[in-house]
Amino acid sequence: MIILRIGIIVFFLLLLIIILLMLNRRRVDNFLYRRELKQNELDRKAEIERLELLVAHEESLLETDVDIAEHEKRLTEIHQLKEEIKQIEES
């Protein structure tokens, strides 16, 4: 009789331990899922920031290219004016 009672108590204790382990596993899985979501959000924000910096850099390069194109245009105009001056001096 005592062995039967001890067996029932041990059975319910093991059942309780199994239930607690399953609940703990669920909590851990939920925690890991939330941490992964947070990390994904941080990665997405970092990627957005990196792309914004890249866009700003490309825009500055375009502005530089425009400045270079304007400078080359002015140099061409200056060269043409010098040619005209030489032609006038030769005449």
Could you name the key traits of this structure?
91 residues, mainly alpha, 1 helix, 98% helix, 0% strand, transmembrane helix, transmembrane
Q: What letter string, H or E per element, gives the SSE order? A: H
- What's the Cα radius of gyration? 39 Å
- Number of helices, where a helix is a run of at least 4 consecutive DSSP H or I residues: 1
Q: Kindly report how far apart the N and C termini lie.
A: 133 Å
How would you characterize the largest beta sheet?
Answer: none
Strands, count: 0
Q: How is this structure best summarized?
A:
Keywords: Membrane, Transmembrane, Transmembrane helix. The chain crosses the membrane at residues 6-24. The chain has 91 residues and is mainly α.
How would you sum up this structure, described in words?
With about 90 residues, the protein is mainly alpha-helical. The chain has one helix and no strands. The longest helix is centred in the middle third of the chain and has 89 residues, at about 1-90. It is rod-shaped and about 135 Å long. The mean pLDDT is about 90. Keywords: Membrane, Transmembrane, Transmembrane helix.
SSE arrangement:
Layout: H1 2-90
Keywords: Membrane, Transmembrane, Transmembrane helix
Transmembrane segments: 6-24
